[in-house]
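Translate sequence into structure tokens.
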Amino acid sequence: MTETCEYDTKVVRYFIIAAVIWAVAGMAIGVLLAAQLYWPALNFDSPYIQFGRLRPLHTSGVIFGFVVNILMGTSLYIVQRTGQTPLFNKSLSWMVFWGWQLILILALITLPLGFTSSKEYAELEWPIDILITVVWVLYAVLFFGTVGARKVSHIFVANWFFGAFIIVVAMIFIVNNLALPVSMWKSYSIYAGAQDAIVQWWWGHNAVGFLLTAGVIGMNYYFIPKVAQRPIYSYRLSIIHFWGLVGFYTWAGTHHLIYSSVPVWVQNIGIIMSLILWVPSWAGAYNSAMTLLSNKEKLKKDYIMLFFFSAILYYCLATFEGPLLAIRWFNMVAHNTEWIIGHVHSGALGWVAMSAIAVFYYFIPRLWGREELWSVRLLKWHFWFAHIGVALYAIALWVAGIGEGYMWLTQSDNGSLSYSFVEAMDFKAPWLFLRFVGGAFFVVGLLMMVFNLYKTVASEVTSAAMAGAKQ
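Result follows.
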């Protein structure tokens, strides 16, 4: 058989195209939201584009549109290549693709209309939740069925991470979204009070831990060695990385509930597990960094490798900030401030998006049989636009958040607050503007990538054609 007969890449292409579209759309909405925070008049007095309705559309578009599409696409490609077997069921792969796009379209319609459960990263109402569960189960059957049909005994480490991402997300999504419907587009959670908060942050933090972290790590463990043209630095370390995340990450979410009515022992579990997570996270980062550094000459001039390397550095930063937030004195200053938004986006833009950008640049030309990028110069420009964007965004919100937290806590001698709410807002206003500028830089860089990749794919010169010309 030829490679095109053995491996189904058509559905992978569709997933990757969808991921690019949702990346641009989701982050563009984010820039609009950043602008609205500085210029509230940009709400235009419309209920459909005001912050409260667009914000969940932004998070859902980025998490479920951009990230899930790229993880589904790359996982289905990687499981075929590493197992040396075609997809378990080709028809099922298309059911998963179109089912997931239907979910995203429903989110695009219902969230601006105000249909929401109001739970962080789980705002979609119960009919869509049921559809998500069905499609996710089909995806799990497709992935694990392909793993089971593999023609090699070994299961490559990337598939370990993808498997964990599929299983854990299914478990925490179903438990968190248990609700009692009262109408077609309204339901209420079966949990209440502190129990609801615990379950919600079990979901919220592990959606980050196993979707934005474990899934992306699985993708990177395949593509980083490919780009570096070197094997993984330490296969044993990658397994330690895996079990460390699986063992400790699921317990860390309650560090978001410090100083709340949740029992102190539950808070302490979140604190301890968050601090322990430093070890497997940085061990994994070291493993990926050393894989790239094993080909230093290529790293010096290959901007795709540099995107991956930057993503690893931001992964180190984000996994330092999370445990830092679990320390009570810092949590008291930083939690519920703009610092949290800066932390989330240093991970989301610096780690997740830069990893995905590197994969797009490396994977898309090969997926369409192209020999090289249309413009390396445009790739370099994108590299610097992305880095300027993330730096401006994160630094602005770190400063705004710490300053905001300090102003909220500062008291005069008689015990009254030293700063009013308006004074705190005035302090952070210029930093919110800088955050908007940073986001705009990042989205402009994405548009450069889209244009570059479109011109690459539109090129009539394929790898096979160029190989024939060389012969």
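Note: The longest strand covers residues 179-183.
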